[in-house]
Write a structure and sequence with these properties.
This protein is mainly alpha-helical. It has one domain. Helix 1 packs antiparallel against helix 2. The longest helix has 27 residues. The mean pLDDT is 88.
């Protein structure tokens, strides 16, 4: 089964929501500023979502660890 672009995008977004919450909390602890923590979190969300999506698509091109589907179906 091949990973679709849409599935990769949804996985990236769901993962980044969790990561962004974590980043916002850490930024809040470090800065003590909710607006600054929110800005850091939003920047983190955008940058890391794009990086994760590209990482997924690149790995999808690598055959390492993949099995070929059978040439027949029963």
């Amino acid at each position: 089964m091949v990973e679709t672009h849409f599935r990769s995008a949804v996985k990236a977004l769901s993962y980044r929501v969790i990561g962004t919450i974590n980043t916002c909390l850490v930024a809040l602890l470090l800065t003590g500023s909710i607006p600054m923590a929110a800005r850091i979190g939003m920047l983190d969300l955008v940058v890391k979502t794009v990086v994760f999506y590209l990482h997924e698509r690149l790995w999808n091109r690598v055959s390492f660890g993949k099995r070929r589907p059978p040439e027949y179906n029963i």
